Structures are given as structure tokens and as C-alpha cells.
Amino acid sequence: APLAPALSGATAHAQRVHTIDNFLTNGLAERLRARFADAHADPASLAAERFVWDYWHAPGQYRQLRTPAQDYFEAGGLWGELESALLRYGREELGCSALTPPWLSVYVSGMRQQWHSDARHGPWAFVLSLTDWEARRFSGGETQLLTDGALGYWDARSGASDGVAEMPQLIQQVEPLFNRLTVFDPRVPHCVAEVQGEMDPAKGRLVVHGWFAESVPRFEGGIGEGTERQAAAEEIINERLGELFTNLATLPACTGTLVVRLAIAADGSVPDAAVLTDTLQARPCGLDPLAVRAEVLAEVGDALGTLRFDPAASAGGESAIVLPLVFE
């Protein structure tokens, strides 16, 4: 049976990491890489763009070269294209309307980020790789995250501590392939594996990174943003969410963000409520955390799947709402 019958795409476990290969289109990734490569082609050059890097060294924690990505890519309209691509993904898939100011960072031999978490910046962190990964001459540079098995190691229900646990069971590694966008829950302890074997910044690990922020609904189609139909739809949603969170208050608590895309038919019904992203984690309560998640997801599915909008709200056609639900 489906985990949450009225919530398509719901899974037993939270979806903490997403990778999107070939993220940037129209040759933008190649142009961003070329902007960096051209600046570092001649080690003897005194061009100003070679002197913009901050050597960030926090003993025992961080060591990398970094510079504000917007300043670095402002020339030639590159920043505008990059920002638009990231914001579009954030709005359509994550229910986020903003970015924290992203960094452009370079890692050469001896550079890394030690284990940390940084949830205060936003519900999703991202790493967009401009690294020439296939031609690299260094080891390391992967984004590493603790797995559910590591996070719940002593929970007998997980079985993680029953036998031999090696690196694949404890740490998820994501290679920074060129033009790969990695999006992950920043509450999960993570790090960047130390780079070894390359001292030339032009050939090191090169990434744009930051956080998606400001979870807000997105209205698409006839119910589009800035219309009276949007205001009417918001009133209906807010009333239902009030009922939903009253009911959820009687259940064991979860924390995280659940983003659902509501498809709205021409008659105002919701034929599909689909999970886009889900980082819900049951708070410790002595109960099976997966059972707690399932109960919460079922409650959300029942509430959203039975929504009914005024047929006029979709202006006679299909519409959709990307709805982020934040559980604190």
C-alpha cells in the first residue's frame, strides 16, 4: 500500500540529498569555467581578477580560497544567468524564493571543510561544481554527508550497529562532477574531503556554493502570482493549513521541510498532491521514527488531497501551487 495514499511520491525515509547533473544549459557552465580559467592561465599575470581571493583559514575547521560569486561573474552577464537558473530551480522544486549570497571557492592540496552543520542559513544548501573533474590530478574534494545509518547508529530499529559498518554505510560521498548541482539538507553533518595532489588553483576543486532561503508558495498557471485568484487560493490554503497543524499537534513531532506540488484541475479539484522534496525527521520520542513520519505524511496528504478551489481560480485551465511546509 502507498505510504500516504493522497500524497504521491512519499517515501519511508527523508530525501536529504539531490543531485542534478548537467544543471546549467546553453553552455553557461562552460562560460563560467572559462571566466575562471582565463584569469588563471598565466601565473605571471598581474590582472586584477587574480587578487580577489580570501584565504579562509579557521584552524581545525575550514581551509579554502573564496570570493563572492556575484562579484566574480558580474562581467558579461554571467552572474545574471547563473542567479536566474538557481532561483528558478529553488522556486519550482524547493519552494524557496531566495539565495544567500553564494561563494565561489577553490580548493588545492591541503584544503578542506571539516565536519559541520549550518541549518540557520536556509532549508537547503547547494554546491554547483565547475571542477574539471574528469581531468583532475588530485584526490579528495567530494562532499561527504553522514547517512541515516550513522545518524541513528545506536537505534536498534536501524540495525546499523548489529554487524560490520564501513564507509558506504556511514558516509555518503557526492563527487563534484562538472555542472552537477548537489542540494542537501544542511542540518545533516557534512564536510568536504581534503584535496591532495594539486597546488595549481586553475586545476583544483572549483565550486559555487550557498543556501536556498525563504520558503514561500509558488503559484503557476491561471492561478498565477499577483492575481485576485491567488489571494482567493491563499485564503483556502491557509484555512486548511490551520486545521492541518491543529491535527498534527496531537501527533509525535517532526522537524524539517516538506514541499508539495498541488495540481489544480479546471473544476478546482486537486487530482495530485506530489512530494517534491522532504527532509522531515521525527523528533526523539521513543517511537519508531519511520512510523512517525508515515503518520505525519498521511495526515498532510489527507488535508491537501481534499482541497477544493473555486473553478474560476484556474481561469478555466490547469494550475499548480508549489507549497512548502516548514516543521520546526
Task: Describe the overall structure.
Helix 6 (228-248) runs antiparallel to helix 7 (289-305). Helices cover 24% and strands 29% of the residues. Strands 1, 2, 3, 4, 5, 6, 7, 8, 9, 10, 11 and 12 form a twelve-stranded antiparallel β-sheet that branches. Strands 13, 14, 15, 16 and 17 form a five-stranded antiparallel β-sheet that branches. The chain is α+β, with helices and mostly antiparallel strands. It starts with 16 loop residues before the first strand and ends with a strand.
Quick structural overview:
The protein has helices spanning 28-39, 69-73, 78-94, 148-151, 167-170, 228-248, 289-305, and strands at 17-20, 54-58, 62-68, 96-99, 103-107, 112-116, 124-129, 143-146, 171-174, 181-184, 190-192, 205-215, 218-221, 254-264, 272-278, 281-282, 319-327. With 328 residues, the protein is α+β, with helices and mostly antiparallel strands.
